[in-house]
Amino acid sequence: MKVFLMLILFGLVTGPVKTDNVVTRFKTPAGYRQSPAALGSFGAWLQALPLKPYGSQCLTYQGKVARTEAYTAGIVDISVGKYDLQQCADAVMRLRGEYLFSQKKYKDISFNFTSGFRCDFVHYADGYRYSKDRWVLKAKKDYSYPNFLNYMTLVFSYASTLSLQKELKTVQNPNNVKTGDVFIKGGSPGHCFMVMNVVENAAHHKKFLLAQSYMPAQSIQLLQYQEDPWFSLDEPAYILYGALVSPTYLKQF
Questions:
Q1: What was the pLDDT predicted at 18?
Q2: Which residue numbers in the chain have pLDDT < 50?
Q3: Which are the contacts of 95, defined by CB distance < 8 A and separation ≥ 6?
């Protein structure tokens, strides 16, 4: 990998870098190093998520430039959907669901609706459909990816920041923030950010990358302020809902 990067630097390899993700695109700040993520973990999966080509705009589900475009540092190469559903909490659940589906951990794919109803993928994949806070058998068994996306659309329709906040666990020591953690405040409106990567220095001070969706539903975007994509818990985050980047709102799956 080091040899390949050197070839790119000296112009001996041209064309797009196929491994463009949060680790390869965003340079680690001086004095910091990459925080490790266990092989096969949610954090490692997030770090390896492909990004759309550099300069891609943040678009809404209707294909319009999103009002958050000014904060775009990168765009996760994942579908937005045709409806105004994949907003802030939905994007977090989408990423978590995608990870579990990719690992075939179907029994772990489950999210609560705001009503408290537990909506799990196994029921849905086995042909059950949601009706007034209960499951009704209506379809054939289908564990395909398209059907997983149908399940996530159902989740987006009935879950929210309020329900997701209740599901997540409080991070007891914020200094241990890790890739895959979530800053979230439930409400109307509520909002949340996903931690996409973490770096730290010799003094164990950490900086991290953040991703979000917004209203109306838009691309999942990596964020920046004045071209700096690295945030920390001891500095103000000058982005929309930046006050949530605080130990008070830090949660984990």
A1: 56
A2: 1-17
A3: 46, 49, 76, 78, 194, 211, 220
Helices (H), 48-116: 88-102
Residues in the chain: 253
The answer to whether 144 and 156 are in contact (CB under 8 A) is: no
For residue 197, give the 3-state DSSP assignment.
Answer: strand
The tokens 């705001």 sit on which residue?
Answer: 114
197-226 pLDDT per residue, tens: 999 999 999 999 999 999 999 999 999 999
Please tell me the distance from the alpha carbon of residue 77 to that of residue 221, in angstroms, as a whole number.
9
DSSP assignment, residue 152? Answer: H
Bridge partners, residue 223, by sequence: 72
State the residue for tokens 């439930």.
Answer: 186
Output the pTM of the full model: 0.91
CA 33 remoteness from chain centre? 22
Is-contact 159 112, C-beta < 8 A?
yes
Cα(107)–Cα(122) distance, rounded to whole angstroms? 6
Q: Which two tokens stand for residue 138?
A: 């209506």
Sign of the torsion angle spanned by Cα atoms 189, 190, 194, 199: positive
In whole angstroms, what is the distance from residue 130 CA to residue 155 CA? 10
Q: From CA 236, how far away is CA 246, in angstroms rounded?
A: 9
